[in-house]
């Protein structure tokens, strides 16, 4: 199986929990013999990194609809902050869908919100990033958040996620439960997550399949995550991961699947 980008989970300060879904530390110390798999991702991330040259940088990486395979750079340190649904616009001044599939320097985003955050983080390395965010974010975001809309979005996110073995709900059923139209639900997800509700559910199912791939059969995983059968799981896996399930777990990647290295993404 290709290396997934290894992250060490870090505790999320209480002050950041309304806006941050998770924090991780990443380091790459050598040239890996196998490619790194950057899995499909539903969250937008703010990444504070230090390269081999000691230079700090801050990136924003939007949700990723399909896997990427890259060879990592040496001696890179990163702290990744996963933004909770509905946090992107109040924090960065753009909708989540504008960042989908992109990795951009924080300072290059338009508007004053991203500029202020870039200045706040500009002199900080990965080790200081979390404390810096905990100091500036709560006061800044509390006044800008749309509570009811965010609550509605997060209820939709929960309903379309795999939870304790329960597959995600159907988009039409979730919209009905939330008392919104499917069009309204798609708008909420585009604005606050950056993906359509259907694609969000596909990625959460895929991530659940990958989490269980070492302990359960493909047929068992298909049943547990809501696929019609193993064939449908395999087809969706190939679409999102670029290779069939068995090729992925054995590390047999076509040369065309490898992208030029651009550091951790």
The tally of helices reads 10
SSE pattern, N- to C-terminal: EEEEEEEEHEHHHHHHHHHE
Query: Proportion of β residues?
Result: 15-25%
Tally of DSSP β-strands: 10
Q: Based on helices, strands and strand pairing, what is the structural class?
A: alpha+beta
Q: Rounded to an integer, what's the Rg over CA atoms?
A: 19 Å
InterPro entries: AraC_XylS_family_regulators (IPR050204), HTH_AraC (IPR018060)
Protein name: Helix-turn-helix domain-containing protein
Domain HTH araC/xylS-type: 170-251
Keywords: DNA-binding, Transcription, Transcription regulation
Describe it for me?
With 265 residues, the protein is of the alpha+beta class. Helices cover 39% and strands 17% of the residues. The strands form 2 sheets. The protein has a 6-stranded antiparallel beta sheet with strand order 2-3-8-5-6-9, covered by helices on one side. It has a 4-stranded mixed beta sheet with strand order 1-4-7-10, with no helix packed on it. α4 (147-159) crosses α6 (182-192). The longest helix is centred in the middle third of the chain and has 17 residues, at 126-142.
Lay out the secondary structure.
Elements: E1 3-4, E2 8-10, E3 20-28, E4 36-38, E5 45-50, E6 56-61, E7 68-70, E8 76-83, H1 88-92, E9 103-105, H2 112-121, H3 126-142, H4 147-159, H5 171-177, H6 182-192, H7 197-212, H8 218-225, H9 230-241, H10 245-249, E10 258-259
Helix pairs in contact: 4-6, 7-8, 8-9
Keywords summarizing the entry:
single chain; about 260 residues; alpha+beta; six-stranded antiparallel beta sheet; four-stranded mixed beta sheet
């Amino acid at each position: 199986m290709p290396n997934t980008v290894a992250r060490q989970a870090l505790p999320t300060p209480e002050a950041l929990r309304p806006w941050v879904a998770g924090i991780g530390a990443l380091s790459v110390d050598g040239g890996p013999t196998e490619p790194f798999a950057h899995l499909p991702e539903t969250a937008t991330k703010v990444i504070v990194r230090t390269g081999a040259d000691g230079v700090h940088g801050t990136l924003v990486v939007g949700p990723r609809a399909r896997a990427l395979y890259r060879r990592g750079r040496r001696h890179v340190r990163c702290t990744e902050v996963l933004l909770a649904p509905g946090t992107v616009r109040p924090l960065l001044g753009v909708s989540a869908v504008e960042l989908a599939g992109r990795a951009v320097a924080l300072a290059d985003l338009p508007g004053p919100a991203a500029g202020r955050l870039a200045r706040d983080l500009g002199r900080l390395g990965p080790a200081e990033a979390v404390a810096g965010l905990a100091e500036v974010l709560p006061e800044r975001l509390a006044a800008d958040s749309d509570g009811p809309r965010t609550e509605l979005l997060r209820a939709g996110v929960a309903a379309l996620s795999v939870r304790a073995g329960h597959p995600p709900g159907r988009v039409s059923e979730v919209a009905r439960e939330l008392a919104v139209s499917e069009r309204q639900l798609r708008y909420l997800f585009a604005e606050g997550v950056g993906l359509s509700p259907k694609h969000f559910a596909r990625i959460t199912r895929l991530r659940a399949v990958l989490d269980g791939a070492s302990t359960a059969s493909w047929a068992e995983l298909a049943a547990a995550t809501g696929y019609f059968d193993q064939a449908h799981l395999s087809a969706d896996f190939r679409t999102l991961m670029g290779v069939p399930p068995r090729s992925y777990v054995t590390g047999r990647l076509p040369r065309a699947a490898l992208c030029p290295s651009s550091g951790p993404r």
